[in-house]
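Before relying on records like the one below, remember that each one covers exactly one chain. Contacts with other chains, cofactors or solvent are not represented anywhere in the record.
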Amino acid sequence: MAISNTNARKVKPTHPGEMLREDFMPDYGLTITTIAEKLGVSRQTVNELLNEHRSVSPAMALRLSRLFGNSPEFWLAAQLAVDLWEAQRNYKKELSHIHMLKAA
């Protein structure tokens, strides 16, 4: 039995890069350089994430969770919400042709 969830979210979910930029960096007094050094990645990688041009990968989620003491699922769930929202908007026409099956 399927649970109906047809209400489309109208507002884009917060990108993990925005969370990092607006919430985590100021609270911890971090710069792009210090985050890159602490995560063991390039400044370009961090910059792309902060500017929402890069998604949080499972490996990055593990690094961020280790750095901030939260779970990798926190970062991946935030990324998944953004990805699904964008896919729903990008594939709206194609998805409208698919109708839910009903059990016999």
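The chain has a mean pLDDT of 94.
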